[in-house]
Description:
303 residues; alpha/beta; 6-stranded mixed sheet; 15 helices
Amino acid sequence: MKKIIVWGLIGLMGLMGGSAQAQLLYKISGKGLKAPSYIVGTYHLAPASYADSISGLRAAFEATEQVCGEVDMLETMKPENLAKMQEAQMLPEGKTLSSLLTAEQLDRLNALLREVMGVDLTNPAMAGQLDKVTPMALETTLTLLLYMKNVAGINPADMIDTYFQREAMKGGKKVIGFETADFQMDILYGAPLEKQVEDLMCFVDNFQEQVEMADFITAAYFAQDLEQLEELNLEEQKGTCTSDPEDNDKLLYNRNANWVKAMPDIMKEHSTFFAVGAGHLCGERGVLRMLEADGYKIEAVKK
């Protein structure tokens, strides 16, 4: 999916400028709702402690009856789903990364692996770990390593999306997800191998561009500066590894539309605290604009 994988992992694509949207938390009311619901934009690698930096979040969380994320995290941790995820990340029997890539491509990949991890696929131990994973799984791993370097104190077991769901369960609140684990696995790892190779090599050949993007968006998110992130999005569309419209639809816009269709019934039954990647919130085809078009009142929560 070229650069779209970066934005998908951190949930920050498709933002529209405007000072009214320069924060992360919004109140949803009107259209017959008995009580308001709230939606917060997350950065999927942000530590749980960052929740305390979002103005008004604690009161909004306490005022709602249930939490809805992109997926029910507890569901993804079930043994059968962990097994499916592992299978989705592995190449078919008889195939390896080394066999999928040309000799020249493999040299370029190995150069990047040495730069990022200090060792490459010529090392038997490294080959044993990575040579049988799909190109997208390797790209995802490298992307995570890249972004983890930019987020101090990151703990993969204690990130902000998981935190909201864990706190809900502690308080006896129901936790639901918009999507199934199978659906999300297909989005990340369902592309044909030929396309995965193309996307991996684009990542490899433009790694410095990825580093600069990581630095920029990490700082911008923690400053809650969505206008700056929109500028980056516009630049990304002119970049070397620009995502095609089909990728954008699959990862962002179709999902936004599906969520907005589901939200009225969810909010009617229980006041809900929604926590999804920030990039799903804004833009003409984002969740906030579509909810407004459907007759709901959307208000930025200032405190």
